[in-house]
Amino acid sequence: MTYPRRVAIALAALALSVPAAAQCGYQSGTPQCFSFAPPPPEAGNVGEDLVLVSDKLKISGDIRFRTRNAWKPSGGNYTPTSANPNAGVGDQLSSRLRINLDFQVNENIKTFAQFNFSEVWPGGDAYSDADPNGNTNDFDGIAQAYLEAKDLFGLDETLRIGRSYFALASGLIYGSCDFLQFPASGTGVWLSREFGAHKLEVFGIDNNGTITTNGLGNDVADGQRFVGAHARIDLGNDLIAALEPYVLFGTADGDRFNAAQGNPDFTKDSWFGLAAMGKLDRFSWNGEIAQRNDDVPTGSDNTFVGYRVNVLADTGDLTGNVLNRVRLTRTDAEGRLHINPGDFNSAGLLHQYGGAWRSDLSTDQLGLTFKPTETLTIDLAYLYMDTPIPSGGEHEVDLMIAKKLRDGAFGWVGYGRDEDDREVLFVQLTVFF
What we know:
- The protein has 433 residues and is mainly β.
- The longest helix has 6 residues, at 5-10.
- It has helices spanning 5-10, 40-43; strands spanning 50-52, 57-71, 92-104, 109-120, 138-150, 157-164, 186-195, 198-207, 224-234, 242-250, 270-280, 283-294, 302-314, 323-333, 361-373, 376-386, 395-406, 409-418, 423-432.
- It is globular.
- The chain has 2 helices and 19 strands.
- Residues 2-31, 74-85 and 211-220 have low confidence and may be disordered.
């Protein structure tokens, strides 16, 4: 968790970024924002999309219903305090509906809009980004709205401008977390270009996500502005397939933060990162490492380094596809590297410490994926977590069961427990249309 400073300096230019395109999705092979449903491209729609306006407007969407129940014999999923002995219990039933409008103006230009309706059902407790007792019980508005144009200036470039989902460092630093009820999206400009097999993108974003506002209706950090660049360097071989470096800088523009409410000032902070990934026979691997330089206006500056390594082995052909995959994961962080992360389940379903790069935390994880049938997947994970927090759990076991019920309909159950008998149970039904 704590590195010699010379190591931190040597690793100053490292962490995972997505490929050079806005909203690129995860590259790690182990998506860290666990939403209890496959992403829409994998799920497919029921029948064909509704097509209107001379085959130019496509309409799709999804609806989900999720329950969360937690038990806390020794103190809940989060560490309790005398002022809040029920911290982390968060029993709730929630629903979310999203409708996507994808309008293809011509072969080079398209616009996209996503409407989101979310609510926590009456009687639920506050948890994550939803507080049924506050002003953010329901969200009924536009989650994404952007224009994407290719070769608009004759330079073979791609331009995206507007409000869009976006991920950096596989969601550990910044990400659009699908677990959340409300849209975790940022407003900005992304300009990218391909150079053969390589990609480069520069961007500027205003952080308009949900974690920064705590989901409770305050404007703690809504609108903080960042500029950066990331790239994908294709090495053309399997063992080390690609490198993905990035840089990110906070600016003084667009900021609305309140230090009294505990939100950090990112104005002069900087991030440097690199990811690498590859494959050898049945084994695939990926690694990311990052450094955040924390500029503290009224005190000593801080530097935090974090890394994550995943090694995955496909074992389906050895076990008749019963044990489909084995995963080994190691994460380590010196302190807070995230801005607004999409990292749910990167450090366990209990979510005791948030995500893997949110604090001084290291984790060792073993994951087993069983696929007894084409429509049933079972994930079993063990996590050992090392942290200075004395009242948090060290050992956690998670069980996740996914079942395709019908075309377009998916059921999920997730259960987590630690050695102090903290427990959490999720049940979710998702339908894509």
